[in-house]
Design brief:
It is built from 8 helices and 2 strands; from the N terminus they run αβαβαααααα. It is mainly alpha-helical. The chain has a two-stranded antiparallel sheet with strand order 1-2. The longest helix is centred in the C-terminal third of the chain and has 14 residues.
Length: 123
């Protein structure tokens, strides 16, 4: 469901509805959380790759919250490379560069609704 939501989001580029939130969180929230994905994930090369491939394993929360230096992001990329076998090396480089550009120390951390913050997991 999350992958489908991310795919629709990548195409529409507007909002991600509560589909990125676990069912228990939906019931607790009692309403649909809307997120301006363009504020969180600015358009550019790599955005759609992040939204379709990274979110196939987890919500957007760790992507947004964990800010890494280029060196840390490159270590992360090596550790995650085998998790996205269907992605070309060039696409993986584009995805990594997008994350470095938009989610590095010093960048403002986008605000996420509590429902998504509650999906946080430690790795």
């Amino acid at each position: 469901m999350l992958l489908a939501a991310a795919g629709m989001l990548a195409a529409a580029g507007n909002t991600l509805a509560q589909s990125a939130v676990r069912p228990a969180d939906k019931a607790a929230a009692g309403k649909s959380a809307k997120i301006d994905m363009n504020k969180i994930f600015p358009p550019g090369p790599g955005r759609n790759l992040v939204l379709s491939d990274c979110t196939s394993c987890h919500t957007i929360t760790p992507i947004v919250i964990i800010q890494m230096t280029r060196d840390a992001r490159e270590r992360w990329a090596r550790d995650h490379r085998d998790r996205v076998n269907g992605m070309s090396n060039e696409d993986f480089k584009v995805l990594t560069e997008y994350l470095v550009k938009h989610f590095s120390p010093g960048q403002p951390i986008p605000q996420l609704p509590k429902e998504l913050l509650d999906t946080w997991t430690s790795y």
